[in-house]
Amino acid sequence: MRPDPMAGAVLNGLSVDVEDWFQVGAFEHVIDRGDWGSLPSRVEANTDAVLSLFAESGAKGTFFTLGWVAHRFPALIRRIADAGHEVASHGWDHRRVFTFTPAEFRADLAQARAALEDASGQAVTGYRAPSFSIDARNPWAHAELAEAGYRYSSSVAPVRHDHYGWREAPRYAFRPLADAGLVEVPVTVAEIAGRRLATGGGFFRMLPSAITDFAVRQVNAEGQPAMFYFHPWEIDPGQPRVADAPLRSKLRHYSRLGAMAGKLRGLVARHAWGRVDAIVAQSEAA
Ligand SMILES: [Zn+2]
Fold first, then answer.
1. What is the DSSP letter of 247?
2. For the segment 221-272, what is each residue's pLDDT rounded down to a tens digit?
3. Where would you tag: which of 26, 167, 194, 244 has the fewest CB atoms within 10 A of its CB?
4. pLDDT tens by residue, 74-88
5. 1 CA → ligand 1 middle, Å
6. CA of 93 to the centre of ligand 1 (A)
């Protein structure tokens, strides 16, 4: 038997935020939610391509999926689950949590979870806020997640960014509530000379892979798992272009899409990855 180079390594969180090219936060002011149903959907084909890419190395991950997507493409959700991945929630239609009242958030969570559980046949116990929209503004959100029975959230970006971020949050998994076991697993940021640097999603796509490799090794050296994320539309250079979006959003969204699949394949091969529920279990056992 060939020795496994990953044996004994810290398992890192591999996560995919499943949403279509027209559902991203950067375009929400130029594409009306009411038009989503009439736009050419590419999420099913792109997510199938992600499943194939993961299958090459046998890596398992968590697919934080919009309820809207699960409702329209239940067979896709079933394929994700059947391949051994975790199906988790990304909310119903990508509204950011700090725009909700607690009651509206509760309703959004319930609607999304019903669609995801119906389609997957799995219990949904994980949640990722759209655009990492749990921060110092909405401390009630974690309490709502615990109340709804979620085991973990991965909704915090502990970094300063123009659209999101909670710079003061811990970099590693923490329990945000004194009276509940809910675990928050922030996405990984590298720490270089006291500065925090985002590493997933568009940052991974636009910057050299070596930066993300450095971040994964840095947190693993501290005995912690990394938490990586990306989107299925990021491996799709053929997606329609949104002409009237702000220039900065377009520069970010369309940059280096063609190189993404190859970079991902390398990253997945170089580190040990797992589902986020497994990462949470690993941190609870430590
Ligand atoms: Zn998203």
1. H
2. 999 999 999 999 999 999 999 988 888 888 888 989 999 999 999 999 999 9
3. 194
4. 999 999 999 999 999
5. 41
6. 9
CA R_g for the chain: 18
For residue 252, report the distance from its CA to the centre of ligand 1, in Å. 15
Ligand 1 center–CA 271 separation, angstroms: 24
Q: How far apart are CA 77 and CA 131, in angstroms?
A: 21
Q: Token pair of 108, please? A: 């959004």
pTM of the model: 0.95
CA of 2 to the centre of ligand 1 (A): 39
Q: Which two tokens stand for residue 202?
A: 């568009």
Distance in Å, CA 126 to ligand 1 centroid: 14
DSSP E strand boundaries for the chain: 12-18, 62-65, 86-89, 126-127, 152-153, 183-184, 189-192, 195-198, 227-230, 273-274
